[in-house]
Structures are given as C-alpha cells and as structure tokens.
C-alpha cells in the first residue's frame, strides 16, 4: 500500500493567527486512508515541519506591505514559494526468521519553493571554525538586481476548464460552439495588470497543425487587474467547423506588477496542451 497526502497551508487574512489547512489524498494502492482524520494529521501538527511552515507563513504575511514598497524582486520571487507538506504512507511485507511481518510508516517532506530540492531529514550545519576577528569598513550594499524574465513569467498561473469530449450534429448546425473557462491566478502579493490575447500567433500551416482550424468567439483581447492572490474566471467560447482533435491552449497571457511603469508586460508560462475531441453525430 502506498498513499501520498498533500497538505497545503492557506492562512486567513485576519488580525488573528488562525490558519486553514487543505488535505488532499492520492491513492497509489488498493487501500484508502483519509489523512485528515487519522494519526497522519496528528503527527503532522506535532512535527517540526508544521512549526517551521507556520512560522514561515506568518512571517511572509506580516512582511507583505514592506515588500510591496521596497523590494519588488523579492515580491516576484515569492510567486514560486509554497507552504506544502507531502506525506507518504507506506506498507511493506517482510519475511524474517520464517515469519511474515507487516511494516508501516510515514515519510514527511516539507516544500518551501517550487523547483528546489527538498529532504525529509534536516541537514545538520557543521560548526564553524574559530577565526580571528577582523574589523572592516562596511561596504555600500549593491542595488537590487532587476527581476529576470523567468521570474516575471511566474506572476500569473493559467488553466483551462472544458469538456474533454463534445458531441455536435454538424449537418443540422454548421458551427459548434463549446464553452471554455480560463482560470487566472495571481501568485504574487501585489496587484497585477493582465492582458489576454486570443488571436492565434501565426496563420502558417505549422501553426494550424498545432491548434487546428478553430477560432475564439467574441473579444480577441482582455485587460484585467487582479488583486493580491486573486483568482479570476474568464468565460470564453471556442468555435469549430468540423470534427477533430484540437488544442485549446492558444491564449497568450501577459502580466506586470501594477505601478511598475518601467516594467513591460511579460509573457506568462503556458500550461500543458489542452486537447479536446469534437465528435460529429
């Protein structure tokens, strides 16, 4: 039996210190365990991972106003920071001295940032050797580096919600219109200006092979302003003229922090291809 549990910390924006936790289970075997009502959750709340995650989250929430005013680079870097704990519940059948034993256990890993290596055991820091005390003249701290294009492309996370398969009678009605919802999530602690461009980037034959011969109905461009960590749903309509398999992942999203006039809109990272099957009935 193997089961993985994800615990995401979502602090409430209140004057108190109460937090809200979301438990999500992924079953990799035949046995399901509800982690939020078992010793798994109790072990998590008693562990050092919980204390460290809680302290980090509270410090981040209290530092938001200062970051918005003084350190744009750090504000953008926080878009990839998370307070996520992964708990793996495992069971092993072991034969020892002609006896079959059942061993069960848990493995906890605390994630602080996306793309960084994490370990279930904290690494002990080696004691620093004694060195002679030196008096030096303090240097002027360097100016903060401008955020990279890769960092700026993580301000907004996008996802498309649509039916994986759609049936349409093309002989009765030549145009097939499918409702699609574009989810926009502001990952930063500041306001973000967003531009959504629905026009296909190119009309070359190569591009048509990628997204097929379909079009978006209505506006071709939207301009929005999302508040800190706001989630916005944009209702779209995709139009098809014949059956086939299509990739709906063509909208281009550009974003920049509000009140940062010198910072141009940066293209946001695209999600995975969003394939839909249109059937003719």
Spell out the blueprint of helices and strands.
Layout: E1 2-11, E2 19-27, H1 39-46, H2 48-62, H3 64-70, H4 72-77, E3 81-96, E4 99-113, H5 149-152, E5 156-161, E6 165-168, E7 176-186, E8 192-197, H6 205-211, E9 214-216, E10 221-226, E11 231-240, E12 244-247, E13 252-257, E14 266-267, E15 275-280
Parallel strand pairs: 6-15
Antiparallel strand pairs: 1-2, 1-3, 3-4, 5-7, 7-11, 8-10, 8-13, 9-11, 12-15, 13-14
Provide a compact summary of the structure:
This protein is of the alpha+beta class. Helix content is 17%, strand content 41%.
Topology pattern, helix = H, strand = E: EEHHHHEEHEEEEHEEEEEEE
Helix count from the secondary structure assignment: 6
- Which structural class best describes the helix and strand composition? alpha+beta
Largest sheet: 4 strands, antiparallel
Strand order of the largest sheet: 2-1-3-4
Give a count of the beta strands, DSSP E runs of length 2 or more: 15
Shape: flat
**What is the CA–CA distance across the termini?**
43 Å
Average pLDDT, rounded to a whole number, is: 77
Tell me the helix content: 10-25%
The low-pLDDT segments are 10-18, 60-70
Strand content: 35-45%
For the CA atoms, what is the radius of gyration?
25 Å
């Amino acid at each position: 039996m193997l089961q993985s549990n994800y615990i995401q910390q979502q602090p409430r924006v209140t004057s108190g210190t109460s937090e809200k936790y979301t438990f999500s289970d992924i079953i990799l075997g035949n046995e399901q365990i509800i982690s939020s009502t078992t010793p798994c959750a109790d072990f998590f709340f008693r562990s050092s991972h919980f204390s460290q995650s809680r302290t980090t989250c509270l410090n981040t929430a209290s530092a938001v106003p200062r970051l918005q005013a003084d350190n744009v680079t750090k504000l953008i870097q926080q878009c990839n920071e998370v307070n996520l704990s992964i708990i793996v519940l495992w069971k092993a059948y072991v034969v020892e001295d002609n006896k079959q034993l059942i061993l069960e256990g848990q493995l906890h890993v605390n994630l602080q940032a996306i793309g960084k290596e994490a370990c279930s055991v904290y690494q002990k820091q080696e004691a620093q050797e004694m060195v002679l005390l030196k008096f030096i003249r303090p240097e002027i701290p360097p100016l903060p580096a401008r955020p990279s294009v890769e960092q700026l492309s993580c301000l907004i996370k996008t996802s498309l919600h649509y039916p994986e398969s759609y049936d349409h009678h093309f002989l009765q009605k030549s145009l097939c219109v499918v409702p699609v919802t574009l989810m926009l999530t502001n990952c930063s602690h500041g306001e973000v200006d967003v531009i959504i461009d629905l026009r296909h980037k190119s009309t070359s034959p190569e591009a048509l092979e990628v997204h097929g011969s379909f079009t978006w109905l209505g506006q071709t461009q939207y301009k929005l302003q999302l508040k800190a960590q706001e989630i916005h749903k944009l209702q779209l309509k995709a139009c098809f003229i014949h059956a086939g398999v299509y990739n709906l992942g063509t909208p281009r999203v550009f974003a920049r922090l509000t009140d940062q006039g010198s910072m141009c809109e940066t293209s946001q990272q695209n999600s995975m291809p969003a394939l839909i099957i249109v059937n003719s009935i």
